[in-house]
Amino acid sequence: MAMTGLTGTGAPADAPDTDAAAVASSVAGLDDTTLVARAGDGDVPAFEQLVVRHQPAMYRLALRMLTSTGDAEDVVQDVFITAWRQLPELRDDAAFVGWLYRVTTNRCLNVLRARRPTTELDQDTAISGRADVQPERAAEISGELAALHRALAVLPPTQRACWLLREAHGRSYDEIARIVGTSTTAVRGRIARARSQLAEAMRSWR
Amino acid sequence: MAVNHATDDYVLPCERRLDDIWQRVGQSPDEHEQTCPHCTAARQSLLVLRDATRQLAEEPVPQPVGLTGRIMAAVRADIRRNRMLPLPSANGPVDISEQAVAVVLRFAADSVPGVRARRCTVRATDTGAVEIELSLALRYGGTAPAERMLAQVRDRVADAAEAGIGLRVARCDLVLADLYS
Q: What predicted TM-score, i.e. pTM, was given to this entire model?
């Protein structure tokens, strides 16, 4: 574990002269649990460090779930503002990342639920939704990856969430069960179903 | 790929489970898999999927410009629990925010090597003094015995509160919440 930051300086407390920059740079070496405790106290630099650390993974998950940069951005912004407000009530400081994944996943599922009527009428929109994500990159990505993106877009949302949390975010089955609020057995079943459907879609690339 | 979708197990016509084939997909095929057409087809599809999954996991996702800044602007605008503490003053009453005091006290505690301050609450008593409760994580196998480190923390925190800010400290409770390595 990194042990940089204030703990190593050994300088006598010179607190009243402390400037904001020193405080901001000092949080970079701290562990998540310490940052969560401080942020729960209302320490803004500690919270900012948590945003810097975890925003990329949450945005990645939201973008893969929603295939829309605007919606993904809204979800992530909402998740972290909710986190800031609820941190004082978070009982287990070490559970913060799991909490972030849970709230991000649920927000994404809610957005998809609200969208559903149109996507059910025309499944092509779910697939072509990919086109507005990163048009400049569309030509660069491999055929395999493009096929996987298309196949992911038509998976049922909870299956997609479980599969992404496992394969793209490296979460364990137990963690995913807590994130989506179901049993480990149900998670295994969903991921197996997703994998089978995705493998089927990749058949033409083998 | 022929798969029995009626069960959750995804059993191939040769009775092998797709999940088991996935578990072994990085290894060379066993005797059955070498000759079974169902397993061969399934392995090939899963290998392509594994490859594409790796690409997906490594695919760079550009972060939206300014997202962190927008989140932090909203956070700073969100006034939360900004409890005020009375600051003894010769020129009439002055209040100071608990959060501002907590930042200074945590900084003082952090200055002791092997100490990371966590939660800090400061409460005013009826007499105008304050009671501090500070939780800490100590470095496991630190350079000094925990007792000496805690005494040092108490001195520096009290000094920062009294000499630094001008509060009167009635009590300073330290809670050893965790160890880190």
A: 0.76
